């Protein structure tokens, strides 16, 4: 688990679903816009790797979760580290990525 090696907290797809359903998290998909449009975690925002602090929640203690394509992808751990450097304290990575989310049979959203 790359995220753990990098000192980041990880979250399972099932635990993320519970947070999403309780509206207690801001989720960021750092995959390409095309991938995000095909399928993403419900409510997830598409975020470019070069994101600005203004694109994150104003409350630096709010829960934020980053994910990319799979546990081999480095985009989400790198984005999470960037958020931590910006002062965010409740940062997690869903290491399974969208592929793990889909494999678990969890609901997705798509853009037309």
How far is the N terminus from the C terminus? 33 Å
Number of domains: 1
Largest sheet: 5 strands, parallel
Q: Structural class, from secondary structure content?
A: alpha/beta
Output the CATH topology: Oxidized Rhodanese, domain 1
Low-confidence stretches: none
CATH class: Alpha Beta
How many runs of DSSP E, i.e. beta strands?
Answer: 5
Mean pLDDT level: 93
Q: Give the helix level as a range of percent.
A: 25-40%
Strand order of the largest sheet: 1-5-4-2-3
Can you put this structure into words, describing what you see?
The protein is of the alpha/beta class and about 110 residues long. It has 5 helices and 5 strands; from the N terminus they run H-E-H-E-H-E-E-H-E-H. Strands 1-5-4-2-3 form a 5-stranded parallel β-sheet, covered by helices on one side. The longest helix has 11 residues, at about 75-85. The chain is globular.
């Amino acid at each position: 688990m790359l995220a753990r090696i990098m000192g980041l907290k990880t979250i399972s797809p099932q635990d993320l679903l519970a947070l999403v359903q309780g509206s207690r998290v801001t989720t960021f998909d750092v995959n390409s816009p095309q991938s995000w449009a095909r399928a993403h975690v419900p409510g997830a925002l598409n975020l470019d790797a070069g994101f600005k602090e203004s694109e994150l929640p104003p409350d630096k203690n709010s829960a934020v979760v980053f994910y990319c394509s799979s546990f081999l992808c480095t985009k989400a751990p790198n984005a999470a580290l960037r958020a931590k450097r910006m002062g965010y304290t409740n940062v997690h990575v869903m290491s399974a990525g969208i592929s793990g989310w889909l494999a678990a049979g969890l609901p997705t959203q798509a853009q037309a």
